[in-house]
Amino acid sequence: MALDAEIKEQLGQYLQLLESEIVLQAQLKDDANSQKVKAFLQEIVAMSPMISLEEKELSRTPSFRIAKKGQESGVEFAGLPLGHEFTSFILALLQVSGRPPKVEADIVKRIQAIDEPMQFETYVSLTCHNCPDVVQAFNIMSVVNPNISHTMVEGGMFKNEVESKGIMSVPTVYKDGKAFTSGRASIEQLLDLITGPLKEEAFDDKDIFDVLVIGGGPAGNSAAIYAARKGVKTGLLAETMGGQVMETVGIENMIGTPYVEGPQLMAQVEEHTKSYSVDIMKAQRAKSIQKTDLVEVELDSGAHLKAKTAVLALGAKWRKINVPGEEEFFNKGVTYCPHCDGPLFTDKKVAVIGGGNSGLEAAIDLAGLASHVYVLEFLPELKADKILQDRVEALDNITILTNVATKEIIGHDHVEGLRYSDRTTNEEHLLDLEGVFVQIGLVPSTDWLKDSGLALNEKGEIIVAKDGATNIPAIFAAGDCTDSAYKQIIISMGSGATAALGAFDYLIRN
User: Fold this and answer.
1) Strand locations in 164-264, DSSP E?
2) Above 80 in pLDDT, residue 104?
3) Residue 256 carries which DSSP code?
4) What pTM does this model have?
5) DSSP 8-state code for residue 322
6) Range name among 73-77, 290-294, 335-339, 405-409 with the lowest pLDDT average
7) What is the percentage of the chain residues whose pLDDT exceeds 90?
8) Does 202 count as an annotated binding residue?
9) How far apart, in whole angstroms, are the C-alpha atoms of residue 153 and residue 151?
10) Where FAD is bound, by residue (predicted)?
11) Predicted confidence (pLDDT) at residue 2 exceeds the cutoff of 80
12) Which of 386, 265, 247 has its CA nearest to residue 315?
């Protein structure tokens, strides 16, 4: 298959950065998929004298390993690394050639300390924007530590393998042939799963922060940047860098940037934050917060952090429908990401719960893959914009069910159906289907604040003043976890800056 001219031009620039000669060791046969992979590899080889292609016996057909000439490697790709995984392929080329991966020194030390052989496989779909984070993390581990090997498995070319293992959500990771984890995760979170979380002692050397930001999304990074620019000691504690924006594929309302994808935007934001003196503590979750003479934050690990002020930028998470079967079949047919998991439901019947913009956008995307899509809306009318409703009406494999209540998701080892009731007649109905995509909005990530003394509204949002101040002195809040009227990326960024300036103003007055 041929790469387009623009991609080839960009790739050519990256290939000039190769540190040493690379061999693409491929297991190929005469089947159609092998020919696609062969054509792709031949095109790459033709672009650089530093790259060659040779046959190699590997565990899957078609697949290939990226190796430095004359050396072994643990980085493999089964299938075509295109779509969102093309970046994973480029980075693997550079890193295997000897170009250092962009990770902190303490992460490299943790990887190098793994002293037992481990073989990882990550099942992906090429439309999944969460998968590259996991693929790239394991590829880095494989480059840094020869005890570790990793194979990206493209689900479209290995459907039989995906179905035999019952994989219904991506990314799904297997370790030494056994299910290990699924869903988006950072390299820090994956290391925690492999080696155990950082111990309490790892935080013993932390001094008192002037501003401690909790949250790694748009609001949190904005707050950290604004605080650091004031020259005060700033920390940023994040369970996941990037926040909810990492789940967003296309962003067209970021002023000054006509189009950007969520992961790309937040990668740029993180680099911006790192350009300042900010102590970033990743894969760490706050457990409690209280105000004494200082603001004290306890982490899940048992560690304690102290600060003169804090900015809570906790973001939001997917709202659940809270019916029987939702938890039991999570990642077994119940999912919250149509872009990631949609291809796994090709030619199958699925349901989308929610008739707002996100619900209809999901239904439109899924209609191109699934045999039929049912949209279930609790209210008598759809809430989505008319332009989306018009697009849905034009598709003959979407059925809209309004004024209905989802009662139960049923199945055995995976989703097999959904039971709902008509809210007018109270009659119950059963839909035979294999996938349920929940799209009913977000809830603030404030559960852990219930006993903190912070004032929350009936939605669980933190009530804030114009400067981001909460009802507790020295504690500020910003973004989707607050009672702001609108939840948008650009608004979260602005509120993060406001809260940081409010915290700085508090510091100089106290």
Assistant:
1) 172-175, 178-182, 209-214, 234-238
2) yes
3) T
4) 0.88
5) -
6) 335-339
7) 92
8) no
9) 6
10) 210-225, 470-480
11) no
12) 247
- Would you state the structure tokens that stand for residue 485, as one six-digit string? 């009227």
Would you tell me how many other CB atoms lie within 10 Å of the CB of residue 479? 34
380 touches 403 (CB < 8 A)? yes
Cite the active site residues: 337, 340-341
Integer Cα distance of 110 and 60 in angstroms: 30
Tens of pLDDT, residue by residue over 412-441, are 999 999 999 999 999 999 999 999 999 999
Please indicate if the annotation marks 256 as binding a ligand: no
Region class of 71: left (phi > 0), else alpha (psi between -120 and 50), else beta: beta
- The residues near 192 (Cβ < 8 Å, ≥ 6 apart) are 198, 283
**Is 74 annotated as contributing to ligand binding?**
no
HSE (side-chain half, CA atoms, 13 Å) at 393: 8
Is there a contact between 427 and 435 (Cβ–Cβ < 8 Å)? no
Walk me through the domains of the chain, giving residue ranges and CATH numbers.
Answer: 5-195 (3.40.30.80), 204-317+444-509 (3.50.50.60), 334-438 (3.50.50.60)
The confidence score (pLDDT) of residue 3 equals 83
Res 178 pLDDT > 70:
yes
d(CA 158, CA 250): 27
Closest CA to 374 of 437, 299, 306: 437
Determine the Cα angle at 328 with ends 434 and 340, to 5°.
55
One DSSP character per residue, 382-439 reads: --S-HHHHHHHHT-TTEEEEESEEEEEEEESSSEEEEEEEETTT--EEEEE-SEEEE-
Query: Is 500 marked as a binding-site residue?
Result: no
Residue count (the chain): 510
CA atoms within 13 A on the CB side of 386: 0
Residue 360 labelled as part of a binding site: yes
Confidence tier at 1 by pLDDT (50, 70, 90): low
**Contact between residue 147 and residue 119 where contact means Cβ atoms under 8 Å apart:** no
By CB neighbour count within 10 A (0-12 exposed, 13-18 middle, 19+ buried), where does 65 fall? Answer: buried
